[in-house]
């Protein structure tokens, strides 16, 4: 049996990737049970939930702030670019992100302006994620993200994010800059698209 949050229920607008709007009544995380709802397992609060086909990557928005839940099997860059296209914004700051991801590729830019890649294939804790979302000259969404992970031996891995697949969940905060426009343009001597402002 579900228990109510002892704090007053305040409805918050929540939108799925399919555009379906619903009200979220502030139930605690263990009752909401994102993992249990997704996989039909018992949640942290002991709630047994059945399997069902809910849409991947849901978000909630309050003003310029968006909190995104990216689900198992989704790639972070791809999910955030789809979100930018769905909501139609051209400029945003990715201020934080946590979770657990696998098949991670990250790296750094060397002295010659070329990216060097590293792999962290096993599931690891995503302890920090930040960056921004802009548009290319063709109008495509473009994500620039840096990440930090802790593997299961508590070794730290960090750098420019090339790809990361969500293993359990990723929870990411984005702040949209409604009155700004950011464009990624090629730089002559670097394997990087520079940021320009309108």
TrEMBL record:
Domain (PPC): residue spans on this chain: 60-198
> In terms of domain of life, where is this protein from?
Archaea
Is DNA-binding set as a keyword in this record?
Answer: yes
Write the record's keywords in alphabetical order, separated by commas: DNA-binding
GO molecular-function term, one example from the UniProt record: DNA binding
InterPro entries to which the protein is assigned, alphabetical: PPC_dom (IPR005175)
Q: Tell me the protein's name.
A: Putative DNA-binding protein
């Amino acid at each position: 049996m579900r228990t109510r949050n002892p704090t007053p229920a305040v409805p918050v607008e929540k939108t799925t990737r399919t555009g379906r709007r619903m009200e979220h009544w502030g139930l605690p995380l263990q009752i909401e049970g994102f993992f249990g709802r997704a996989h039909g397992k018992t949640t942290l609060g002991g709630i047994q939930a059945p399997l069902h086909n809910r849409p991947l990557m849901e978000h909630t928005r309050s003003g310029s702030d968006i909190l995104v839940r990216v689900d198992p099997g989704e790639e972070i860059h791809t999910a955030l670019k789809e979100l930018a296209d769905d909501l139609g914004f051209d400029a945003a700051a990715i201020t934080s992100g946590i979770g657990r991801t696998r098949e991670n590729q990250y790296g750094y830019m060397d002295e010659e302006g070329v990216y060097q890649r590293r792999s962290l294939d096993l599931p690891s804790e995503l302890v920090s994620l930040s960056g921004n979302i802009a548009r290319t000259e063709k109008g495509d969404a473009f994500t620039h993200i840096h990440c930090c992970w802790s593997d299961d031996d508590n070794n730290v891995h960090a750098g420019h994010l090339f790809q990361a697949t969500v293993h359990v969940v990723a929870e990411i905060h984005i702040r949209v800059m409604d009155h700004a426009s950011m464009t990624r343009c090629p730089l002559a001597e670097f394997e990087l698209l520079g940021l320009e402002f309108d």
